[in-house]
Amino acid sequence: MVVSPLLRAVIMGPPGSGKGTVSARIIKHFGVKHLSSGDLLRDNMQKKTVALSEEEPLYYCTFHGLSDRTGIFHCFLLKVVISCVEVGILAKSYIDQGRLIPDDIMTQLMLTELKGLDQYNWLLDGFPRTVAQAEALDKECHVDTVIDLDVPFETIKCRLTARWIHPASGRVYNLEFSPPKVQGIDDITGEPLVQRDDDKPETVSRRLQAYDAQTKPVLEYYREKGLLKSFSGTETNKIWPHIYAFLQTKLPDVSQKNAATP
Ligand code: G5P
Ligand code: MG
């Protein structure tokens, strides 16, 4: 396990509790790198359609700027493309049913991504979600703090049906709480917004059950280690100033221009 002088934080909470919304504010005010397991999976799901194209292996050659096409090298590139497709297909089958992706796949995906963030303060969103994942993360690094958004399930169910996202960036909107400037369009890129397939009421119920059974024990795991900091409420705008004040104690040196405003 590596102990880093940089901040290693996790944000937890039931589906729809506001992890993505609060993460965006933390990024804005504290400049940490954000890694969301759900965004990573959806990115892999998205790649599925692109990677099935016949031209895809060539696309990867160009993307990496490699012109030497010897047999061995081609095999390697092809394997990269195929593995993206497989994770995407597998993830979709689990996510559409509101079930968690198997621990070994999820852990490998996230820990590989984390290696690229060694030099930065980071915030994990949606990972770990089982005790096995938390133990695997502990073997790699020392987690400093775990922010828990404690929002009642009844509040959450209403929120998710009104959620729209920009898939490429993970930006999150809500028709009532944080609508886009133009309906159906991302504020920054002008690209169309979509609804998540797993925001259907029956899938939301299964995701909440999975949270109760598999993720609540992770809260206990971190509570016993003295790392858990819970923030309870039904409105992100009321919870946020408390999270902001808490993170100021963790990252006092980061320049913060905008006080606690969202
Ligand atoms: P995800 O993508 O990690 P969930 O289910 O954990 O998905 P989700 O749905 O992304 O969490 P969130 O990020 O907690 O929710 O919430 P959010 O998007 O910020 O806010 C929800 C909505 O409420 C938005 O529209 C927002 O604008 C609005 N909102 C926020 N605050 C307020 C407020 O105060 N008032 C109102 N009215 N609205 C508000 O994971 C997806 C799937 O991937 C797999 C699983 O299958 C999972 O189900 N997966 C994993 N599987 C195994 N292991 C892992 N570690 C996995 N990670 C993901
Ligand atoms: Mg999210």
Bound molecule kinds, no repeats = P1-(5'-adenosyl)-P5-(5'-guanosyl) pentaphosphate, magnesium ion
Q: Termini separation (Å)?
A: 35 Å
The value of Rg in angstroms is 19 Å
Order of helices and strands: EHEHHHHEHEHEEHEH
For the biggest sheet, the summary is:
5 strands, parallel
Oligomer: single chain
CATH architecture: 3-Layer(aba) Sandwich
Roughly what is the average pLDDT, rounded to an integer? 85
CATH class identity: Alpha Beta
Low-confidence stretches: 49-67
CATH superfamily: P-loop containing nucleotide triphosphate hydrolases
How much of the sequence is in beta strands? Answer: 5-15%
Number of domains: 1
Strand order of the largest sheet: 2-3-1-4-7
Q: Share of helix among residues?
A: 40-55%
Shape: globular
Question: What can you see in these coordinates?
Answer:
By secondary structure, the protein is α/β, with parallel strands linked by helices. 51% of the residues lie in helices and 12% in strands. The chain is built from nine helices and seven strands; from the N terminus they run βαβααααβαβαββαβα. The protein starts with 7 loop residues before the first strand and ends in a 12-residue tail after the last helix. The relative contact order is 0.19. The protein binds P1-(5'-adenosyl)-P5-(5'-guanosyl) pentaphosphate and magnesium ion (MG). The site of magnesium ion (MG) has 4 residues, from α1. P1-(5'-adenosyl)-P5-(5'-guanosyl) pentaphosphate is lined by residues 13, 15-21, 37-38, 41, 94-95, 98-101, 106, 126-127, 129, 133, 159-160, 163, 172-174, 176-178, 198, 207, 235-236.
